[in-house]
Amino acid sequence: MIENYTFNETHTRFEPLNNKCTYCGEAEMKSIDDCCFVSLYAINDRTNLIVYRSVKYAAITIGVPRCSSCKKIHISTQSKANWVSLGISAFVLVFIIYLFFGFNPFSIVFGLFGIFIGAVLLAPKLTETYTSNQGIYTMKDGAETNQFIHDLVMSGWSFTKPSA
Ligand SMILES: [Zn+2]
User: Fold this and answer.
1) What distance in angstroms lies between residue 161's CA and the mean position of ligand 1's atoms?
2) Of 6, 10, 58, 147, which one is least surrounded by beta carbons within 10 A?
3) CA–centroid distance, residue 134 to ligand 1 (Å)
């Protein structure tokens, strides 16, 4: 599936030659900057590293074709999800902490930490829901339907950075 892609040496990334938006399956991508760029990491030395002109890459970026409308939806659903999850976890935690610990320096620090963790955990789920409600694929689901990315993941590449 690599034949559908061209390697951009300046940005060290694979850019799609196919312009059909992966996320809505309808519109055409007008600008390469609207792409959803996904990073993949080689898990170990034995993973088939991509060798391009004798340079080995352990991390590569692949563009998933996306139209400008889907890009807007992805950005707005993500920021909406961030704010809503921050609001929800703040509301819940302030209430719980005040109830159990009262108002003191400890509960403020603990509360702020908890609000942050709650928001981080909740945001991806909300983003997913909001994005599906708009009738398009989420960034991750779209990436997973991409054949090139799928093949790389099957051969041992990972969406998450391996810890050293
Ligand atoms: Zn689209």
Assistant:
1) 28
2) 10
3) 11
Task: Give the Cα separation of 120 and 110 in Å (integer).
Answer: 15
Q: Which two tokens stand for residue 147?
A: 């054949």
The Cα 129–Cα 53 span in angstroms is 42
- Give the distance (Å) from ligand 1 centre to CA of residue 16: 15
101 CA → ligand 1 middle, Å? 48
Ligand 1 center to 86 CA (angstroms) = 28
- For the chain, the domains span 2-69+137-158, 71-133
What is the pTM for the complete model shown?
0.80
| 10-residue mean pLDDT series, the chain (164 residues) | 80 92 96 94 67 71 96 97 94 83 78 88 95 95 92 87 72
Instruction: Calculate the alpha carbon distances from 130 to 77, 135, 137, 148 in Å.
Output: 6, 9, 10, 27
Altogether, the residues listed in the chain come to a count of: 164
Residue 1 burial by Cβ neighbours in a 10 Å radius (0-12, 13-18, 19+) = exposed
How far does residue 11's CA lie from ligand 1's centre (Å)?
23
Residue type, 83: W
